[in-house]
Amino acid sequence: xxxxxxxxxxxxxxxxxxxxxxxxxxxxxxxxxxxxxxxxxxxxxxxxxxxxxxxxxxxxxxxxxxxxxxxxxxxxxxxxxxxxxxxxxxxxxxxxxxxxxxxxxxxxxxxxxxxxxxxxxxxxxxxxxxxxxxxxxxxxxxxxxxxxxxxxxxxxxxxxxxxxxxxxxxxxxxxxxxxxxxxxxxxxxxxxxxxxxxxxxxxxxxxxxxxxxxxxxxxxxxxxxxxxxxxxxxxxxxxxxxxxxxxxxxxxxxxxxxxxxxxxxxxxxxxx
Length: 272
Prior knowledge:
single chain; 74% helix; 1% strand
């Protein structure tokens, strides 16, 4: 990428160049790699906790505010799927954490100036388009919940969140709604996990297009399906459990998973 004066764009100098038609090499992952990545993620969080706590606080605070807002507005049918689906945007929220882990890996001390500059620079790069992909999947998740409510429960309204929970947990139609909804949700989560598990840090580090990044991410999953799906299960369970006490657990869980994702990317996609 060059400017009109023929000078190399500084952003491009900081990222490895790669032909859009060339897929990065991926390696087979082992369970030991997941363990090592989690351990490295915890160490990164302990080394630079302020960055992780800030990101975790922002995500959990925004999630709680929207959840309470939906409850106050008497939209319980949106509050429940929002609480379940909100973590889908977690990978994009962790972009700053990838930058922190990259600096620590290079032996450099991360600073707010460098981290914020890295995040801000993504607005003109392919990573910003990945954010729209994630938000689109989240929108599909929310929309299909409303459709399933109409199909399974009829055109009904709920006076409170408690009434909504009572209907879905104590009636046959409610159980059908839960079953179908979670199956569809699991399918969407699997798709999103497959295309983002390494594509976000890959787009941060290398100057490649979004399609190449997503294909590489899916390739990593197909190369080591059981190990990567195991990682997906760990992420899902950890985030869901952390979200239960009003998203408070995300304060710590999200940073650790964000840092760990960087190290998984490093192990799965070797540096050329």
